UniProtKB/TrEMBL annotation:
Organism, scientific name: Candidatus Curtissbacteria bacterium GW2011_GWA1_40_24
Superkingdom classification of source: Bacteria
InterPro entries associated with the record: Kinase-like_dom_sf
Full protein name: Aminoglycoside phosphotransferase domain-containing protein
SUPFAM superfamilies noted in UniProt: Protein kinase-like (PK-like)
């Protein structure tokens, strides 16, 4: 497994940290730490976090404990996102929710943890794997689009951000490309995708983005209510259309449903969205998709290639 990947590094307090690879923690120690304040119903080790179900004062709560300092850095970003979103979008008036923060802190004086309320419902997709699309998923697409547009319209400012949204997006895309093995870059002519991004980036406006806007992070809570979890990669200074472009790429290449991805694009086109702008996002996400596949236990670039061939013709 390739470990030193620049695309998954962040700088925090002068240190370069990795937020991709997690570690296993001793669950008995974790339980003993939290049992002082909470009724610990369940704990389990995930790839990057220790996750848990807690109760306190008849409230059902959810634990997300980072297993490295790098993962903790993006966990703090998620905490800030939950605070910002809920300060602007009030429950229950809105149909679009994110978790409400209940508590946060440091485990072992270095690993960030976040405790939120529990949002129960039906995930649009249970896992990031090929699966049959439910009727719930298909009927929810207009709400998915509306949620992505709501996020873009939030008034989130970052006065300390000195680099433009366009430069950040281009640099991130460049880092994805650089971390893909050279033979794969050449075999699939990925520089062609990067040129599409370079050409289109100046036409994109700076907008907030969730950054991991996927079917397996979207929950249908009720008839018209939806929740979005896992805001680790939120950016105040993102670029417009990133979230819906990310969603389309995930539906096409990860859930392996090109037909639905194309239907979403057609729906956006019918609504008057600028497809040329979206093409820039899709090209960047195509590069990201090739990187994801290169990190898989067994790499299969067939859907990444199909996605690339589709978007270049848009």
């Amino acid at each position: 497994m390739r470990k030193n990947l620049g695309a998954f590094k962040i700088r925090v307090d002068g240190k370069i940290l990795d937020y991709r690879l997690g570690k296993n923690l001793k669950l008995t120690d974790v339980r003993n730490f939290f049992i002082k304040k909470y009724k610990v119903k369940k704990l389990w080790q995930g790839p990057r976090h220790v996750l848990g179900e807690f109760e306190k004062s008849n409230k059902k709560l959810f634990l997300k404990l980072s297993t490295t300092e790098g993962i903790g850095a993006v966990g703090k970003n998620e905490y800030r996102w939950n605070e910002e979103f809920n300060s602007q979008i009030k429950r229950p008036k809105s149909n679009y929710w994110v978790p409400k923060n209940y508590d946060c802190g440091l485990y072992q004086n270095k690993l960030f943890f976040l405790i939120t309320d529990t949002l129960k419902g039906e995930f649009l997709a249970k896992t990031p794997t090929e699966s049959k699309m439910s009727q719930t998923f298909i009927s929810s697409i207009p709400h998915v689009i509306a949620f992505s547009q709501l996020i873009q319209g939030l008034d989130i400012k970052n006065p300390n951000q000195k680099i433009s949204a366009q430069d950040i997006f281009l640099d991130k895309t460049k880092s994805w490309l650089a971390d893909i093995p050279k033979d794969i870059q050449e075999q699939y002519d990925l520089k062609k995708l990067y040129k599409i991004v370079e050409k289109g980036i100046l036409g994109l406006k700076a907008k907030p983005r969730h950054g991991d806007f996927t079917p397996w992070h979207l929950i249908k809570l009720g008839r018209e209510q939806f929740a979005l979890i896992d805001g680790e990669h939120v950016m105040q200074n993102g670029v417009e259309l990133y979230d819906i472009g990310y969603f389309i790429q995930r539906v096409f290449s990860v859930l392996k449903n090109p037909k639905l991805a194309k239907n979403i694009l057609n729906l956006l086109d019918d609504r008057g969205l600028d497809i040329k702008k979206l093409r820039c996002i899709l090209a960047a996400r195509a590069i990201g998709g090739f990187l994801d596949e290169s990190l898989a236990h067994v790499s299969d670039y067939s859907y990444a290639d199909k996605f690339k061939n589709w978007l270049v013709k848009i």
